[in-house]
Amino acid sequence: MTARRLLFGGDYNPEQWDEDTWREDIRLMQEARVTTVTLGVFAWGFLEVDDDVWEWDWFDHVIGMLSHAGIGIALATPTAAPPTWLHRRHPEIIPVDRQGVRFHQGGRLGWCASHPVWHGYSTRVARRLGERYGRHPAVEMWHVGNEFGGGNRHCYCEESSTAFRAWLRARYGTIDALNRAWGTAVWGLRYRDFDDVIAPLASESGQSPSLLLAFDRFSSDALLAQYRRERGTLRDAGVRTPITTNLMLTVGGSVADYVDWVPELDVVAIDHYTQAADPHRERELAFVASRARGLDRSKPWLLMEHAPSAVNWQSRNRPKEPGEMTRHSIQHIAHGSDGALFFQWRASPSGVEQYHSGLVPHAGTRTRQWGEVVALGGILERISETAGSLVTPSAVAVVADIPAKWAWEEGQKPLNGYPLERAGRRWHEALAARGLVPDVVSPTADLSGYRLLVVPGMYAVDDDAADRIAGAAAAGATIVVGHLSGIVDAENRVRTGGYPGAFRTLLGVFGEELHPLLDGERMALASGAVAADWAERLRAVDADVIDTYRGGPLDGLPAVTRRRVGAGSAWYISADLDAGLGDLVDAVVADAGVRADVPVVPGVEAVRRERDGATWLFLVNHGGTDATVDATGVELVHGQEVRTSLTVAAGGVAVIRETAAAAR
Amino acid sequence: MTARRLLFGGDYNPEQWDEDTWREDIRLMQEARVTTVTLGVFAWGFLEVDDDVWEWDWFDHVIGMLSHAGIGIALATPTAAPPTWLHRRHPEIIPVDRQGVRFHQGGRLGWCASHPVWHGYSTRVARRLGERYGRHPAVEMWHVGNEFGGGNRHCYCEESSTAFRAWLRARYGTIDALNRAWGTAVWGLRYRDFDDVIAPLASESGQSPSLLLAFDRFSSDALLAQYRRERGTLRDAGVRTPITTNLMLTVGGSVADYVDWVPELDVVAIDHYTQAADPHRERELAFVASRARGLDRSKPWLLMEHAPSAVNWQSRNRPKEPGEMTRHSIQHIAHGSDGALFFQWRASPSGVEQYHSGLVPHAGTRTRQWGEVVALGGILERISETAGSLVTPSAVAVVADIPAKWAWEEGQKPLNGYPLERAGRRWHEALAARGLVPDVVSPTADLSGYRLLVVPGMYAVDDDAADRIAGAAAAGATIVVGHLSGIVDAENRVRTGGYPGAFRTLLGVFGEELHPLLDGERMALASGAVAADWAERLRAVDADVIDTYRGGPLDGLPAVTRRRVGAGSAWYISADLDAGLGDLVDAVVADAGVRADVPVVPGVEAVRRERDGATWLFLVNHGGTDATVDATGVELVHGQEVRTSLTVAAGGVAVIRETAAAAR
Amino acid sequence: MTARRLLFGGDYNPEQWDEDTWREDIRLMQEARVTTVTLGVFAWGFLEVDDDVWEWDWFDHVIGMLSHAGIGIALATPTAAPPTWLHRRHPEIIPVDRQGVRFHQGGRLGWCASHPVWHGYSTRVARRLGERYGRHPAVEMWHVGNEFGGGNRHCYCEESSTAFRAWLRARYGTIDALNRAWGTAVWGLRYRDFDDVIAPLASESGQSPSLLLAFDRFSSDALLAQYRRERGTLRDAGVRTPITTNLMLTVGGSVADYVDWVPELDVVAIDHYTQAADPHRERELAFVASRARGLDRSKPWLLMEHAPSAVNWQSRNRPKEPGEMTRHSIQHIAHGSDGALFFQWRASPSGVEQYHSGLVPHAGTRTRQWGEVVALGGILERISETAGSLVTPSAVAVVADIPAKWAWEEGQKPLNGYPLERAGRRWHEALAARGLVPDVVSPTADLSGYRLLVVPGMYAVDDDAADRIAGAAAAGATIVVGHLSGIVDAENRVRTGGYPGAFRTLLGVFGEELHPLLDGERMALASGAVAADWAERLRAVDADVIDTYRGGPLDGLPAVTRRRVGAGSAWYISADLDAGLGDLVDAVVADAGVRADVPVVPGVEAVRRERDGATWLFLVNHGGTDATVDATGVELVHGQEVRTSLTVAAGGVAVIRETAAAAR
């Protein structure tokens, strides 16, 4: 086995500290076995200190120190935060809000992705960095900008309107096509030509859901174009190492449609932050990590940022519990990340993020936290052989799609403020509890390998995606379509003729009427399951009725159906059953004939990675009691042989290099 | 009996559909026995496709098809939604918000009622329509604009300020009179001349309640002036058929003071939408329908819009229950509407209202909903003889007033966010439960026919209205003044010298101090009734004490009083008793000596209409069980003779042409 | 004993009334024994009726009437509300909000403290008033403006940015010093020179907590500068009587840092309004009154405004209970106010404050309220000998600081929306319940006289203050530092190296990590106390552990510690124990060796004032039952001798001139 490593480290902002601290940082990085730091994310104002006035010496020096210490660098283009002088000279690059009022200096992502002046300044700084450090041996990776869209997702300035029109011309070709696609005849808002269109600045009443969705797509593309602009500049300047950026991927996150970004990323990299108030945040993490994996299943991905402990932006920023940072890091790696990087190396005393935790906390190194950091560095070193491996392919996937979420959130809906993504997370949890390791994939992914495909809350779907899902059923897969799927098309237009339009034929049902429930209202099913929030007036046209509504206005009507489709089957769950999915999950798993991928032990998350015939079983005990898992091999974290089973301590982690026969 | 009909149909927007759909629409309208469609509400951009460029052919064609099919047309001036080209050319017509920031294109009512440019464009399109279709035989009615003020109630642009000043000059004559009326000496905000006044754009602190109320009145008048401008244009262009517009009348609705609009309407027409979360929405409907009737008791009114099922603009848009559309339609007709029109004919897949239900739903005609539509068309045909009749005059009325609500909602109040209109609805419900069919009338209505007049939450009242109410008591009526009545005058100025200033003498009481209660606080009365939200420190000067407060700071003081006034009496209820009105209602009903107008059967709403000696008893069973009502005559919905009583099925409706002796 | 008096009266706005009312007012003032009215607060527009056009006659007349009636005048510069003509001529003086949008005319404090045009107009009117009335014998005091910052605390206009930059230059000297102090390297937001800085107008993301805090300090200073500008103008114009303004002091109030204002005030004057929904608003009042006293312990202060009954600006403006106005007035005087003035003399029927109560209510004088007003006037006359006395010095103080609150509220915090001031109020209550009369003082006060010093929620603290607190401990005091103290420095920068940085050495502890708790989360302590909202991962380095956390992630770690420090001791309470402070208070009181200052009788608040050897014991019975207090002397309110004890009626008040031996 060749020398491999899992990345460990995080964002490093030396511009905030003096040289003595730099030296201490290097020493502590070595103590903690840090492999990699992300450098320069917020350094623009310290490199280009005024318009085209550059100061490189200090940066050269820091890079030299890191290089000398054997610490790899992910070098950022510093476009996440324009310097104050640039905002003072060019306030016109700052985003404009929906009311048409421009923001001001003093924040972070204070730029409009469509503004030509911004394009000039941002590419110049990227080019200068690329030219200077493009071939530096310590610079192992490039990190373009930071959290694209995290503050500047939408801009409503005139340059944005101009760019939006160009984007629309490219998408629709003719204004008639646009008018048809958006149904602008409603309220008589037809456009005569593309010049009639502006960004969806606030009107005195609501606005077209199609316009709003198109603007979301455009805005995502404008951010992607900026990424590509910087990436191309770096390549032109001679950069040969991998280039990526950190996608803001969480269950509810939706600033951009990352599926389109993947082809432009040499490695998929994500940021992930848990919600302190979520009692099962580890499950949300598993969902997101599965989704990161699903973006590009051909190679490992990279956790670019997570938090050592508390963050600063939630209402109550409770710190992580002892051991939680380690469990979360190992979870991400188990799900395919080739490392665990953090925001940030050293906690800042100042600025907006002054309460965001760091690997080196405000209190310094005589702390529980630093002890856990050093221990984690050791663990990652001991399990470094897993680097480069892939999660064992799964027969099960949950489909998720960011534009479907946009479509649901833009405009007035039957049920407003409803978390479309909740059902997907619930299915992922329920399948994981049965020893499956579901991928989370977009509808454009290759679906051919899956025997069980769950399609929950796929509110907007284009014909191609609907066809591909139907094709998977015909080819033998079990498809489970959840409520609020297939309702609208890619233009946010309701598919008429019976809900859920895109899947009606596949499912063999005819939905007469969507039936959101009132706050607190419950609707019983014959099976004993209980619906909240959502139901549907449904008829089974060519499907078996598995469960029915009992009582109320839908009494006796189908709630859950199944249709045989070629070699496969297609289930429809018309109600939001949320926590009460239990029996249904067993039924569809049985129908699909899939078996557990990993051992099932309550409280223990198990994921397997493999490479060249070798397999590693990752075990994370989220529970409060020790748990014993059947396995054979060598446990790498504690370095012990495992003959038939291993006991993982409460809150602990283990990674077993399995004896060949043991795997699967 | 001459050929009569009740109108049935709704808004029809052919510009959203192709010609094949038009043909299907006509066929379906005939299947459902549709009599009337409202055409052109949002068609402006399809008629005037650019500035003074007109396309009439398609509209001629649609009108011809409808005419040929025998379907009547309510033709709209399309001013509810200016076309995009107009906003692009003249963004200055779009309303400005309180901060002084102008809205943008893309919505619905994007116009300022005071803007001269708007006046020009809106009257030109009205004139062209009037000239072209003013004498078309299928155009049976004209529908000016749509939901005036539903989005553009207030505009704070400079043209609005200019028009506001002109309005103030007309109302007050001199600036001294205005200064006195508003009490501008408070905070030293006296105006030197009218030119000092601007629209109440946001200041860094609160603003004068008198200024705010005046701006509400002005804004209502500005909308009315726009209505009159279009109506006058139509008449000038040769229109001879009735002209109206759809008033947004609900319990809490208050975009304009519709009492002033009635003289300009050839028929009172309203829109009414229930709140899905209101478990007794049928009672709110009855209140509103009684209010529509009260606006002009001399002739039937018209329900211009209600929803076939769900709407799109509430938080949770639960659909109507099976049968509910029918019950609501019959309720409105029972209360005096000569028909039941809907928004909208065919549900749109696009636009802001894509989830507003239609008579033809997204799922098409193979649906429960379409079945109920067709059945309803049949019912309306079978009860068509009731058209033109009036609700039997009632001896009981509840007084309601929109400017009183404005006065309460503008400025800082003893109890903020409190629903002033709640008490009126509660009284209406309580009286209806006793077999009465109360009118809901404005204080300017002719009050002479009422024996019992309830005046709840008439917060602002001018001297004339107060005198007329007192006069009704002197003439023998029982007057019940509720809390929060008569506190301020028409200028939103507190009437000093003891609350409730306008009614103090009539009631024989002296209110020392208003006494709002804290959230969750309750105050008991000696009778066992319980006050929440509101009480008052009261003395009985010349009145009998009916009930007193018990415990707390008002212990032993009067809560409810009665004063003998000439042949009548005047009650005062100083506390908010909300749900606990029971015994009090019985007492005032007894005091007034009024008897039930209709049979009292729990769950069944009964209303009688009459014409030329004939009477019809409408019965709507809102309950979950069948109910039997004493009656004699012929039931028209199911076509059966009624000898002594009729059983109305749970959720069902009935209309009995009564045998002469049976009525009253 | 020389003739003394306690001030009684309130804001008088004759410009709102006619001359007949003036005469009635004077008569009623005399009936109520009013000593003092504040005149002219909102009279600008009636004195300067247009730019430099003056009308003095009416004002001369009113002043003459008051003078003739022997009623003293606190004459206001009328700058609280610029006249409409000034806003029309110079809208540029109106504040601009954070988005950069200017407000409009029609409110109250519509001026930017940094605007040169405002400076010109405001000083001209002050000079004219000073010249005309500066030596008028009835004008006993001057009242500059009104509630500075109550609406115009922050202005973000360009003149404000300019003034902010000048202020920054003066504070920091060099831009490098500012960059270091604020840590602008975070997000690379370094300024090249002061011209790069603007007011913290909204950005698309958060902004530096140091910038925001600096702007709060600047804004406070800009208001103070305006106060000084007007005060200096008055002095230059010949005013020789005391000059002050009414500070908006409440527990949570924080529009300006009043500690800096005290040197400019000839007497500390405050406004105080209770929250109707606070069931223990009398305790909040005691805290605030103690704070007013703490601002300048060398002389009595003055309650310039409180409410006769209801206010108009809360959600539910419940009136005061019978007797409450009297109790509140006596409470303030007990705590050192030389009088009880009210907003306002006569309730206005108009304007924003139309529902703010007056001494003469809307209902007039045949009211319970007026009776209590007259009675209160009599009481104040009977206890007038207490004027000029001081509250007996206390050995106990609670430290409070407005900039510490700003620092906590600006920026993203571990626990957002948390009321930092709550702990201080709880300690004040708990100490008062033990017969102590704690001062509330700023950290810059002379701390040498206190044996027990409670430092709760002193989130931001500079080195000097921290040193002075440590010095008090070394000199023998017991110091109790509460959670969320000493975390950041005066620049809102976290003090690194272990929490709570400023007090770590004094306390002998090392805080590893701040540990906010989730909503609803509780954490038990070994003693049985229970923490909510806040805890801390703490180690005792050089301190005794008094209490520990039990269970959860902090199990077994110290929660409360004590360190012996020279002759004193320093306690640390790392958790929010809120209502459960009980045993801890007893322990620290015992540790400090302080004894009750006043008799302890449940429900009765007791405070002692003294002068020249005489002492007066004020007793306020907040309870619902009569209470007996041990005392000897003469009770002045009812005029009775007190031999050994006095029974104070439920809800009643008493003031005992004590027999010499009885005091202390």
From TrEMBL, chains A, B, C:
InterPro entries, alphabetized: Beta_galactosidase_C, Beta_galactosidase_Trimer, Class_I_gatase-like, GH, Glyco_hydro_42, Glyco_hydro_42_N, Glyco_hydro_b
Assigned EC number: 3.2.1.23
Residue intervals of the Glycoside hydrolase family 42 N-terminal domain: 11-382
Keywords: Glycosidase, Hydrolase
Top EC class of this enzyme: hydrolase
Location of the Beta-galactosidase C-terminal domain: 603-658
Catalytic reaction annotation: Hydrolysis of terminal non-reducing beta-D-galactose residues in beta-D-galactosides
Domain Beta-galactosidase trimerisation: 395-594
Domain of life assignment: Bacteria
Family of this protein: Belongs to the glycosyl hydrolase 42 family.
Name recorded for this polypeptide: Beta-galactosidase
Species name: Microbacterium terricola
